[in-house]
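Milestone M4 deliverable, item 7.
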Amino acid sequence: MMGWSFYAGGRWMIRWLFVLLIRIVAVLAVIFAVFYVGDLAVYRLRGSPQSKVTVSRFVSIPEKARKTEFDYLGTFDAPCAVAIFDQGGESACWRLRRNPNLGIETQ
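Output delivered:
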């Protein structure tokens, strides 16, 4: 009998934790959505500000024995959006500045 009451209490605890997890995920989704819409609004109110970042391009060519050859293709100025998230079909400038190497994979 004691085992049954413990199981019922454990079942209640699991349900409570599941409800708590669902609420946390919902709150985080709402916070993300508000943050994204706010970033989009600021981006549009500022007139869709854009900039350019110098990016290096590389192509990776698979070879035998699981080796890969990397060939340098040069640099170019990539257009970017001055925003926190990607806006207007362009990457955010902070992301391109942080990762200035663009890799192209071939199969």
